[in-house]
Structures are given as C-alpha cells and as structure tokens.
Write a structure and sequence with these properties.
The chain is α/β, with parallel strands linked by helices and 496 residues long. The chain has 22 helices and 14 strands.
Length: 496
Amino acid sequence: MALLNYKTLEASGYKGYVLKDAPEKIMQFGEGNFLRAFVDYFFDVSNEKAGFNGKVVLVQPIASGLTKMINEQEGLYTLYLRGSEKGEKVDLKRVISSCSRAINPYDEGGWEKVLELARSKDLEIVVSNTTEAGIVYDDASKFDQVPPNSFPAKLTRVLYERFKAGLDGLVVLSCELIDNNGKELLACVNKHIDAWKLEDAFKDWVNGKNIFCSTLVDRIVPGRIRDPKELEALNKANGYEDNLLDVGDVFGVWVIEGPAELENKLPFKKAGLPVHVVPDVTPYKKRKVRILNGAHTGFVPGAYLAGFDIVRDCMHDDVIKNFMNKMLYDEIIPTLPLDKKDLNDFAAAVQDRFNNPFVNHELMSISLNSTSKWRARNMPSLLEYVEEKKSLPPCLTMSLAAYIAFYTSNVKELNDKGLVCAREKNEYTVSDDRWALEFYYEHRNDAPEKLVHAVLTNLEMWGQDLTKIPGLEAKVVEDLKKIRSEGAKAAFKSVI
C-alpha cells in the first residue's frame, strides 16, 4: 500500500479539504500527537473556513522525533476526532494539510533552516509544546550552539535573527502544561538576553514588539492507534498507509491570554472555532480544574468502591452520574466567577467526554495521588461553598468521605508499590506520596471517629485544620460509616 502524500491522497479519491501550497506563517516547536490533533487541526480548519492560507513548519525540539516520517508524507496525516456529543457517538475523519514540512535542528544544516524561517517575512506565529520541563532557564545553553540546548534558548536565537533582519515581532502561543506558561517563557528569554549580553534594543524589541501569550489547552489526545488490526483496517479503508495517523477527543477548547485585538489577528474566531482570546486565562483554568478534574476526583474513589472500573460505565449508571451532576451544578458551579451558561455548557460537555465510547479511562488511573488532587481540585469548592452558603455541600462532603474510604478499605499491606487495599471484587493498590500512604497505613485500624479526626487535622494534607469547618467532621464520620455499612453506591444515592 502506498504511503500517504499528496499524489497518493488524490489517487485515493479523498473528497475533503486539502491545501497543498501556502506561505509558511507558523513555526511550531513540537511535532507530537497533541499539537497535531489540536493546534494544527485548528490552523487546518482556519485555512478552509477563514481563508488563513498559512502553513505550519514543525521544529523537532529534541534530537529524536518524527521529522523524517513527517517529510516522507509531505506533512500530511489523518486525524480522527472521536467521542460523544449530546449523548451521540461521534467519529470524524479529516486529512490535515496545514503542515508543510518538519525540521530537525540537530541534523546537519537543520538549525540554519530554522534561522532562515525566522528571517521570513511570512512568519507570524510561534507555537510550542515542549512538555512541562521545556520552559526552564538553562545556563548551559549558549548563543553560538548549533542548536542551543533548551527551547527558550532556541527561541531567543530565533527572535534575535528576526530582530537583526529588521522584521516585525511574532505572536508566541505557549501550550506547555504549566501555570502562566507564556509569562514563564518570556522570563526565560529575558534571562538569556542578559546572560548573552545582547543589546538593549533587542530586549526592548522582544518585550515591546512580540506578544507572549499564556494559554490553556483542553483536548484529550490518546494519539496513535495501538491495535495493529484496527490500524490496518483504517489504512485499507483510506486507500493509503499513514504512519502518522492521530486520534483525539472531539471536544477541544483553546483559551489564549492576550489583548483584545489579537482575536482578529488570529484566524480562529473567523473560522468559528472554540478558541477564545481573553484578558486573563486564570478563571478558565479554574473552570477546568474545578469542573473537569474536580468531577473525576469527586466521584472516582467512591465509584471504584461501588464496583466500577472505567469512567464510561459510571456515566451509564444513574446514581453515579446524578451524584456527579449534582456536585457540579449545585455545589461547584455556583462558586465559580464565570458566566453561568458558559459553566453549565462546559459541565454538560464533561458528561459527554466521560461517556467517550472510544476510550476506556480506568478509575484506578485517575485515582493516582488523590490526596493532592482532592486538595487542589475539590477542597477550594467545598470551602467557597461553605463561605457563601453557610452550610455543607452534601456531595463534596461525601466525596471526602469516599476518598478516606478508598484509602482504608480492608488494608492488607504497605509495600514498595503502594497501599494494598481490597473491595468486594478484588485487591487494589493505592498510589500516592509515601507520607500519605504511611499515614493511612498507620491509621488503618482506627474507628471512624478517630480516623476522620486524624485526616481532617493533618496539616500536611490540607494546609489547614478542616475540623474548624462547622459540622464537617461529624458529617464525614457519618458518611464514612454509611459507605462502609451500606456500600458507596447507596451512600452516593443518599445525597442525591
């Protein structure tokens, strides 16, 4: 079977949108599954719907990567967006033609190709996703290295090349999963400017003529299909072999922090895409953490004890689903500082995402490090609900009890892998920080009253004494007893 390229695609009879030639307007550091299923998809739709007429050049951020495979396929790859929308199964296929080529800066002549692109009058945007460890200042990165070690150092050289050519600044869209990713990237660039003793005029140009945007990215990207039989069937149906075939969730949102005029400079609004330019990305991050992540952490420990193993099955059970929805709509959303319709729409999408028929998301995977997760995702909602309503949120309180029950259900042993517990069906191993596991192992035989008091007064866990919240200790004890005596599902049902 012929490898995917423009000639093969035409011969296959593909009827979708394809753009073969266009100016290279985007330099993208990162060529992995996520960016190709998210950013490059958005640019591809912008080419079709908004007449953006721009190509993405993928720069491989480390020595090993996909450059050779991308260039063999002339930048083309097949993307499947799969999931559930309003309860209906969705399986969309699109050949992405927004990428022109890939560059490996570690190959001979590769770094010069990157700098040549930096000098292009067509270039407008830099995108990056170099993992959480990518945005760090590295004093071992030098100006004259080919290429410089770190991503911020590479970007500094790219910007310097552009400055020396007398060209306009760029829009820098950082997609790394750290807080204030754009601000942190700019801070690293400024450190390199100082360390390399580059001219003040360049530093002024970087900070005054370029826009460094912090962004929030939200799309689940399982990536490549692992089943060789499924992959073979898809290639056969497509009429070509695709070594870069990618898979993402149908839901996707990109929130970009920047000036209002940036919304019209970027092509996404005109294309009708879920990409939003906002003055502050913080409330949207809070929305994601409290609703999407908070839903997971809020129902998963109890659902696992109730006998469930994957998220999708939980969405097919009325008790678990209604428990989650009551927690979201009645207890979490009222505490968030965004438009309520927007929050309700986001929460509705969460149920669809959890019901994805293509992804078997295991509850035990979600349960990793539940102590820090409950503190970051659920505790703020509980505290703000108590502050506003002067009462306890029933579902969030029950979720705290379920978390404790999950860590103390028929404890067998503490070993190198974690805390071995058991539910009715089987043993399971709780994974968390060692100090948290040792705490629960030490208290494994405590009566509910003593156990709950020890948990809620543990300052290392919560950063505060949760017994100070009126009525919380007694209610968590009551809920824990109910979980242990009647089962987690019955306990969940009692609060809905």
